[in-house]
Sequence to fold (172 residues):
Amino acid sequence: MPSLRVLLSSQQIHARVLEMAAAIDRDYSEGPVYLIGILKGACIFLADLARAMKTPVRIEFIGIASYGRGKSSSGEVRLTKDLDVSIEGYDVFLVEDIVDSGITLTYLAHLMAQRKPKSVRIATLLDRPGRRQRPVEVHYVGFKIPDAFVVGYGLDYSEDYRNLKDVCVLEE
Ligand code: IMP
Ligand code: MG
Fold:
């Protein structure tokens, strides 16, 4: 039976999200900025981040599939849902749950850049730098985490556990 061990409590996450929102507000007070949530894992982080920010935001989602049912990247990235609007001339934030190999964000950063935004930055709740295969510049990082598979606060394992309040290590 798999077991769950709390790595980051909901209180820790809440406090850090407030800090990240304040940092983004300092950098972009004018707005509107486009927060682009990478489905589905980033939806809960995006919802909390957007509400903690004072800068006016617009919310968009983009769908990407890189993981199958397993715990490691297939190495393939597929667009499953595109943006609904043009981002030309806007400040854009890709909002991610976790940066692992870096394959997803390398792909998306290139794709967004082709659409002539004013700027593209990346905000991620979690960063696992130990498994990077592609270098990505991540501008706002919530927590650096060790090499363990995590679930909760939006992150899943085969679509389960997304609604846990804490980020937990999934142990077999
Ligand atoms: P990357 O392309 O390898 O950087 O993969 C990033 C994506 O893989 C994230 O958006 C997550 O959806 C998924 N992912 C990576 N690590 C984990 C994990 O520990 N738990 C759940 N999903 C993960
Ligand atoms: Mg994801």
Observations:
- The mean pLDDT is 93.
- The longest helix spans residues 10-27.
